[in-house]
Amino acid sequence: MKIYEKDNSVILEGVADFEPKHIFECGQCFRWIKEENGSYTGVAKGKILNVYREDNKIYLNNTNLEEFNSIWYNYFDLGTNYTEIKNTLKNMDEYLDKACDFGWGIRILKQDGWEMLISFIISSNNRIPMIQKAIENLSREYGKYIGQYNGKDYYAFPTPQELNKASQEEIRACQTGFRDKYIKSTAENIVTNNENISEYTNLNTDECIKQLLKFNGVGPKVGDCIALFGMQKYDTFPVDVWVKRVMQEFYVAEDMSLPKIRTFAIDKFGELAGFAQQYLFYYARELGIGR
DNA sequence: ATGCAGGCGCGCA
DNA sequence: TGCGCGCCTGCA
């Protein structure tokens, strides 16, 4: 991989397993919005970034090499060999073989744990456009203003202290619906107990999820997503309706319960369960499998 | 128009 | 332990 800086952009030439559409539309993030030219603009780590692929070049716009090295290399998990991960999964069965080819450019982003906690509480029984809107509203109302990109204003995701300044009613006014009380309770819980969610990364997967389940609004599926996307717990397997459908289509009986599907998958895919989940989810949702 | 979506908490056996 | 139910809100 060749990396160089040019005109406020960092260009990655010959980077393997990197496709913006796959990365930003495989269900792991809500703040990356597709632009008319097919690029994606998002906010992470308090920075605005625009990402575009042309052939074997990835353009990271609105950044520089210093920022790339300190932030984006890690955020996009560029130190992990996804070719190797896919090869292991592809050798397991024909379904993963197809799913890995289909979502060949997926990478699991290393996102902020606190942001994932609130974002996935919002995701419960909700649709992606609504989730995106709610997170955008919360950020605009309670997060710090970062700046403009292409004439649009961008705001950082609010810290626990910033979000806790909002009342339950004000949180609901941001289109969070009945999840307002979960968000308020969680923010309050973290601020009053002076908890640092990022430390959950150091716990083992079971303990990490057990701690997450203490928060109001966090159940099995949401807890798994926070652990996988915000705390690098790759040996877990979030089962949402799409994953349930694809698992029932390919692996298990129609009447198998969600917790049993989860256990089945963790046993089967082991250390790579989280990666398998992402390839299967993207495959199922894009193709409408089991709908 | 009603039913339902990338679940959760609750009440009840 | 396990299940059924209601829930914001927008959209088909």
Helix content, binned percent: 40-55%
**Mean residue pLDDT:** 96
What is the overall silhouette? globular
What is the CATH third-level topology name of the largest domain? Endonuclease III, domain 1
* Rg on CA atoms, Å: 19 Å
Total DSSP helices: 14
What's the name of the CATH homologous superfamily of the largest domain? Hypothetical protein, domain 2
Q: How many strands? A: 8
From the N-terminal CA to the C-terminal CA, the straight-line distance is 40 Å
Q: Uncertain segments of ≥5 residues (pLDDT<50)?
A: none
In the CATH hierarchy, the architecture of the largest domain is: Orthogonal Bundle
The proportion of residues in beta strands is 5-15%
The main sheet comes to: 6 strands, antiparallel
What is the N-to-C order of secondary-structure elements (H for helix, E for strand)? EEHEEEEHHHHHEEHHHHHHHH
By secondary-structure content and strand pairing, the structural class works out as alpha+beta
CATH class of the largest domain: Mainly Alpha
How are strands sequenced across the largest beta sheet? 1-2-6-5-4-3
Regarding quaternary structure, how should these chains be classified?
single chain
Domain count, please report it. Answer: 3
